[in-house]
Design brief:
Layout (H helix, E strand, L loop, with lengths): L1 H18 L2 H6 L7 H4 L3 H13 L19 H10 L4 E3 L8 H4 L10 H23 L7 H26 L33 H19 L12 H15 L2 H11 L8 H4 L11 E5 L13 H4 L6 H5 L2 E3 L1 H4 L12 E2 L23 E2 L14 E5 H14 L3 H12 L12 H15 L6 H7 L4 E2 L15 E2 L12 H6 L9
Antiparallel strand pairs: 1-3, 2-6, 4-5, 7-8
Helix pairs in contact: 1-4, 1-7, 4-7, 4-8, 7-8, 8-9, 9-10, 10-11, 10-16, 11-16, 16-17, 16-18, 17-18
C-alpha cells in the first residue's frame, strides 16, 4: 500500500506541472511538490481536481507496461466487468484484449496486470482525493470553491471505494452483518499511515462510502459546476441511489433516484436512435469528455466497444449482444436498432460507415459510435437519468409496490417504445425490470455487478457465445469464489497485513 502513495505524490506534481499557473511552476520544482502546495490555493486545488478526473480516461507513464492499451481509465474497468457477464459477447479472439477476462482467468491471476489495474487506478483516485478532502478547507480562496472541491473529492473517493469493494470483496448481503473482508480504507495523506494497513470489512467500506456521499451532498447542494465532466449534487445523489440499491436499502434508493434525475429529461426515441457518440444528451448526468488533443487513439473506450473505429480489436472482434436478450426486445423499441442480427449494419447513422476490413458477426452493436474510422473518441456517460428510473422501478417492485413500479417503468420505457405498458406484478414485474435494465445499460459496465449483488449465477448457455472464444466458460454458480477478484500480488508482497481472497 505504501508504494501506491508514493505514486500519488508524483502524480500530483504532474498535475501542477500541466495545469497550474506559470508563476507557481517558476518557484516550486515539480518533482518536489507536496500535498501542502496542492491545497495552498483553491486554484491549485482545482488543478489537482481536474487531474483526478483525467484519471478516468488518461494513460499515465506508470501504466505503460507491455500491451497496456486496454488499461486506459475507468472505462477500461467497465469493459472488464462487462466481459465477465453474459450480455456483452466477444465474437472472436481479435487481438486478444479482454479475452482472458471473458474467460474468467485474469481476475483470478494475482500476478496479472489486468487484475492489478483497477486496484491501482482507483487507489490513485482515492489518494489524490484525500489530499483535497483533508486540506482544501485551509486553502486561500473563496469558501464556495473550497466546498465544491471538497464535495467533488468526497464523491470521487466514494465512487472508487464502491467500485473496488464490489470487485475485490465479497458481495454485500442486505440480511447479514457483512463482516467479510472488503478493501483497505485509505483516508489520510501521510503515506506512512498506510504501511501495513489491513482490509476493512465490507460493512465498514460501505459505511465510509455513504458517509462520503452524505458529506458531498451537503457541500455541493446549491453549487454549480463547470460542466458535466465534474460531479455535482445530482450526481452525488445518483451515486447514493446506486449504492443503496446494492445494499438492498430500497426506500433510500427510491428517494435519491427521484431527487437525482430532476432536470435531466430522458432522450426521445429519435435522439436515442443515433447512438452514443460525442453528443451531450439531456439525460447524461456525469460523463467523460475527451478532447481531440488528449485522445489515446488505440486505448479509448471507442477503440474496443464502438462499431466503426478501425482498431484491430474492433475490426477482428466487434462486440455483440447476447442473442437471447436481443430477442426479448420489442420490434417497436428504438433500442433494437443498436444491434444488427445480420452484422451487416446497413442502418448506421448518417455519415457513419464500416470498412471492408471490419469483420461481420451477427448481433454486433452500433450503440457506441466513434467520431470516425480513425478517431476512437466516444464521450462516455458514467451516470444517466435512465438508470435512476430503473433504480426506482426495481426498488419499488422489490418493496412490493407494484403499481408505483409499473408507473415509473412505463414512464421510462415509453421514451424507447411508444407501445410499452408495464402490467406484470410480483416476480414477473421484477424480471421485466431487470430485462429493461440489461437492454438499457448494455456495455456501460453494470451487468456483472448486478449478478453479484443479487447473488445470481452466470449463465451464457443457449446464446451466441462461442466456446472457443470464451474458453468454454458458460456457467459460474452463485457464491463461487470466482466472484471475488484476487488481491494483486504486488500488494500481497508489500503489505504483511494483507489477506488474500479464497483461491
Amino acid at each position: 500500500m505504501k508504494k501506491v502513495l508514493y505514486i500519488f505524490v508524483i502524480f500530483i506534481a504532474g498535475l501542477l506541472m500541466t495545469a497550474c499557473e506559470e508563476e507557481f511552476l517558476e518557484t516550486t520544482p515539480t518533482d518536489q511538490t507536496s500535498s501542502l502546495d496542492v491545497v495552498a490555493t483553491t486554484d491549485n486545488a482545482y488543478a489537482a481536481l481536474n487531474g483526478i478526473y483525467r484519471l478516468f480516461y488518461f494513460r499515465y507513464d506508470t501504466d505503460r507496461v507491455s500491451g497496456s492499451q486496454g488499461r486506459v481509465g475507468i472505462t477500461s474497468t467497465y469493459i472488464q466487468v462487462d466481459c465477465l457477464g453474459e450480455d456483452v459477447v466477444q465474437t472472436a479472439y481479435g487481438n486478444g484484449w479482454f479475452i482472458n477476462m471473458y474467460r474468467w482467468l485474469d481476475h483470478r491471476n494475482e500476478s496479472d496486470s489486468d487484475l492489478r489495474y483497477p486496484w491501482r487506478r482507483h487507489y490513485r483516485i482515492i489518494a489524490n482525493a484525500n489530499t483535497l478532502i483533508n486540506g482544501v478547507q485551509d486553502a486561500n480562496g473563496p469558501q464556495d470553491d473550497k466546498d465544491i472541491i471538497q464535495g467533488e473529492a468526497l464523491a470521487l473517493r466514494a465512487f472508487s471505494f464502491y467500485q473496488i469493494v464490489q470487485l475485490y470483496g465479497e458481495r454485500y448481503s442486505s440480511g447479514g452483518g457483512n463482516t467479510q473482508l472488503g478493501v483497505p480504507l485509505l483516508l489520510n495523506d501521510d503515506s506512512e499511515v498506510y504501511e501495513g494497513l489491513s482490509r476493512a470489512t465490507v460493512e465498514e467500506v460501505y459505511a465510509q462510502v455513504n458517509s462520503d456521499l452524505d458529506q458531498a451532498i451537503l457541500l455541493l447542494d446549491g453549487q454549480s459546476r463547470v460542466n458535466k465532466t465534474h460531479i455535482n449534487v445530482d450526481v452525488a445523489r445518483a451515486l447514493k441511489a446506486r449504492v443503496a440499491l446494492t445494499m438492498g436499502e430500497y426506500a433510500t434508493a427510491i428517494t435519491y433516484a427521484q431527487e437525482a434525475r430532476v432536470g435531466y429529461p430522458l432522450m426521445d426515441s429519435t435522439t436515442y436512435s443515433t447512438g452514443f457518440d460525442l453528443t451531450d444528451q439531456s439525460e447524461f448526468m456525469w460523463w467523460t469528455e475527451i478532447s481531440e488533443d488528449q485522445t489515446d487513439r488505440w486505448g479509448n473506450f471507442g477503440a474496443f466497444l464502438s462499431r466503426n473505429m478501425s482498431s484491430s480489436n474492433i475490426r477482428g472482434n466487434p462486440k455483440a449482444i447476447n442473442s437471447l436478450l436481443y430477442n426479448q426486445i420489442s420490434n417497436s423499441d428504438v433500442r433494437k436498432q443498436f444491434w444488427d442480427p445480420t452484422g451487416e449494419h446497413l442502418n448506421l447513422p448518417p455519415g457513419v460507415s464500416l470498412l471492408s476490413s471490419h469483420a461481420r458477426f451477427p448481433y454486433t452493436n452500433q450503440k457506441f459510435i466513434a467520431v470516425s474510422n480513425s478517431d476512437s473518441r466516444v464521450n462516455f456517460p458514467h451516470v444517466r437519468s435512465a438508470e435512476m428510473y430503473l433504480i426506482e422501478a426495481e426498488a419499488q417492485a422489490r418493496l412490493g409496490n407494484d403499481v408505483l413500479a409499473q408507473t415509473v417503468l412505463t414512464e421510462f420505457a415509453l421514451t424507447r417504445d411508444a407501445y410499452y405498458t408495464a402490467t406484470n406484478t410480483g416476480q414477473a414485474l421484477i424480471d421485466e425490470i431487470m430485462i429493461q435494465r440489461r437492454i438499457e445499460l448494455w456495455g456501460e459496465g453494470f451487468r456483472w455487478y448486478d449478478l453479484k449483488r443479487l447473488n445470481l449465477p452466470l449463465d451464457r448457455t443457449g446464446a451466441n457465445h462461442d466456446a472457443s472464444v470464451c474458453g468454454n466458460l458458460f456457467q459460474v454458480p452463485a457464491g463461487d469464489v470466482r466472484w471475488q477478484w484476487l488481491i494483486p500480488e504486488d500488494e500481497m508482497n508489500d503489505n504483511p497485513n494483507m489477506v488474500q481472497n479464497p483461491l
